[in-house]
């Protein structure tokens, strides 16, 4: 099988859009296919103990190539079709191709080549980071995930903070991704100011997972925002301190709190929970009281809105997609390499968001009734 003779410098020049680089049949797919194919051919040569067309010394022990089998390898740039060499004796067992991807950068693709290819899309990334946003959003989700990055000969875990907004038409978008900043009110204030500078005048409800400094920062820029901490995260943080033998009964009692029809009933059930379990799990129950102002927001809304805001699972689903796209890189060499990877992955994920959230018409009607003045005020600016 003759490998393609591709002039990648010329191919780079032909790229006019991000799809030309990372889309289906794009440059990255061609590049990965070419290099992985060369790895397999070299591995077969090593297995046979000779070059491709070299004959064996002992004819009785000879083993030859015997065509190819097809395999699609998943990568951050989609599925890459590979031809796996076969030998007549069926003894050839190539190493896991997926694990070889990490080695590609040191074999036939230099870091400078990778940089040139990915830099082609960074103008689009900068435009995305600074694009104008709508004046008002019904819901925004904020969360953080961590990635390993090399920093002065050390591998450190850096937080990646993500904002996802749902617009008035029910479509979700990633507003931005911020990496490696020190979490706190000052950091989150800069994020909120950035959103405000890009056109956001009001956020009706902000859903988050107890991110330090965020509540004060977001209220400083969007003073009317309603904050809802993720109930699911609060439950997880609570149950890990409860003895296994008591979990089933404790969860049954706790469910009466967060599943209550009204805040008044929920608080009454929380008081009952404290009476029953306070001698064993006082700190767990106290955390519900301490965070109640941010945990109880959803009781003020209809079931349609409650379902959307009591958890940050919508954003966590996006985070899982990021993990899928970046899982081949256990450690990123620089912050910039992480930014590039996250932008490219984000772009690919958002292409699939072509429909509004389920039953959005009913949900929007509730928002327009409950927040009519705020919506009109934001749109009038």
UniProtKB/TrEMBL annotation:
One GO-annotated biological process of the protein: DNA transposition
InterPro entries, per database record: Transposase_mutator (IPR001207)
Region (Disordered): 46-70
Domain of life: Bacteria
Coiled-coil annotated spans: none
Pfam families according to UniProt: Transposase_mut (PF00872)
Magnesium recorded as keyword: no
PROSITE patterns assigned: TRANSPOSASE_MUTATOR
Record flagged with keyword Calcium: no
Gene Ontology MF, one: DNA binding
Keywords of the record: DNA recombination, DNA-binding, Transposable element, Transposition
UniProt record similarity statement: Belongs to the transposase mutator family.
Purpose: Required for the transposition of the insertion element.
Name the record gives this protein: Mutator family transposase
Organism listed in the record: Clostridium chromiireducens
């Amino acid at each position: 099988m003759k490998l393609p003779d591709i002039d990648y410098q010329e191919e780079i020049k032909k790229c006019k859009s991000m799809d030309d680089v990372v889309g289906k049949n794009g440059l990255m797919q061609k590049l990965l296919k070419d290099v992985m194919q060369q790895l397999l051919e070299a591995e077969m040569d090593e297995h046979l103990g000779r070059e491709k067309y070299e004959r064996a010394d002992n004819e009785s022990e000879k083993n030859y190539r015997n065509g190819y089998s097809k395999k699609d390898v998943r990568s951050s740039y989609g599925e890459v079709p590979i031809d796996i060499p076969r030998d007549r004796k069926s003894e050839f067992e190539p190493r896991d191709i997926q694990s070889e991807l990490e080695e590609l950068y040191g074999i036939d693709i230099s870091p400078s080549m990778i940089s040139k290819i990915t830099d082609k899309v960074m103008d689009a990334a900068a435009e995305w980071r600074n694009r104008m946003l709508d004046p008002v959003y019904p819901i925004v989700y904020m969360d953080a995930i961590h990635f390993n990055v090399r920093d002065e000969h050390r591998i450190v875990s850096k937080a990646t903070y993500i904002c996802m907004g749902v617009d008035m038409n029910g479509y979700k978008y990633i507003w931005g991704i911020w990496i490696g900043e020190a979490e706190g009110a000052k950091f989150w204030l800069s994020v909120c100011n950035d959103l405000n500078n890009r056109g956001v005048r009001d956020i009706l409800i902000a859903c988050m997972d107890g991110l330090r400094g965020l509540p004060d920062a977001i209220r400083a820029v969007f003073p009317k925002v309603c904050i809802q901490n993720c109930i699911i995260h609060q439950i997880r943080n609570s149950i890990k301190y409860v003895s296994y033998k008591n979990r089933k009964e404790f969860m049954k009692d706790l469910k009466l709190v967060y599943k209550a029809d009204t805040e008044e009933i929920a608080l009454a059930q929380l008081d009952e929970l404290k009476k029953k379990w306070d001698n064993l799990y006082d700190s767990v129950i106290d955390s519900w009281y301490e965070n109640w102002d941010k945990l109880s927001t959803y009781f003020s809304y209809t079931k349609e809105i409650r379902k959307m805001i009591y958890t940050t699972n919508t954003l966590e689903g996006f985070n899982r997609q990021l993990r899928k796209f970046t899982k081949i890189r256990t450690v990123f060499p620089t912050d910039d390499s992480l930014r590039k990877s996250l932008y490219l992955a984000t772009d690919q994920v958002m292409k699939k968001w072509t429909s509004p959230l389920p039953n959005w018409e009913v949900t929007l009607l509730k928002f327009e009734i409950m927040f009519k003045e705020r919506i009109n005020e934001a749109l009038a600016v």
